[in-house]
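Weekly modeling sync, notes
Attendees: S.R. (lead), two postdocs, one rotation student

Agenda item 3: backlog of single-chain predictions. S.R. asked that every request posted to the team notebook include the full sequence so nobody has to chase files. The rotation student volunteered to paste the first one in as an example of the format we agreed on. Action items at the bottom.

Example entry:
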Amino acid sequence: MILVIPSIDLRHGHCLRCIEGEPGTEKLYNSYSFHPDNLAKLLRRENAKSVHITDHDSFDNDKDANTDMIDAIIRSIDIPVELLRCFDTVEEVEEQLEKGVYRVVLHSLILTDPEGVRSLIKHYTPSRIIAGVRADKDIAVMPSNKKGLTAIDYGLQAKALGITRLIYTDISWEGTLCGPDTDILRTIAIKTQMRITAAGGVSSPSHLWALQELQPFGLDSVIVGRALYENKFPCQKIWRQAEARLEVPIED
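Predicted structure, as returned to the notebook:
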């Protein structure tokens, strides 16, 4: 079975999404939005094997807005934390890895400092340095992509540096719950021969089963955000019912 990786989206130290709980527990779950480290603990209790964090403020040139909360999340759980943020230099990547982030997701830095990325991989191994690409009609969306590289070309460039895993999402499906395009994912996997993590679009077990069919091609994991927060999976109703009885209110 492919690995489901919950996503925590951070802005100004808070979560962008709020979990929908059982009726009468709204206050409990609303509080998780203001305490992402406690949300990470909840996801771990719900059997998460890894957590993906997106630092949205870093893409708006605010590198400090979520630093303390990222550190708190790392300290709060005993599973690997994967971090997607705007890295302008190799030194910024090294800082996060040394502070306890298990895996970083690179994008523009692969194009602006390929030799620096190569040195990161040599020192930290490909298991901790991976590539991420967000596509729009097959073109990789990032400011540094001035040549208009396709997502496949970008993936192959990352692979040439020693990267073995690619996170792929598309603006046509991210956040929509309409399901990822399995044909595109299959093509990416075949053309790049990399391990693939799909991101976004999933809203049901049927979407997970469809992605499971791509495992022979190299797709082995999926990052899920909105669907988990909106309880789109059958097991979540059981979790929420139990949590309504057992969870202790978070102190501000």
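Discussion: group reviewed the output briefly. Residues 90 and 116 are 6 Å apart (CA to CA).
Action items: rotation student to repeat for the remaining queue; S.R. to check formatting next week.
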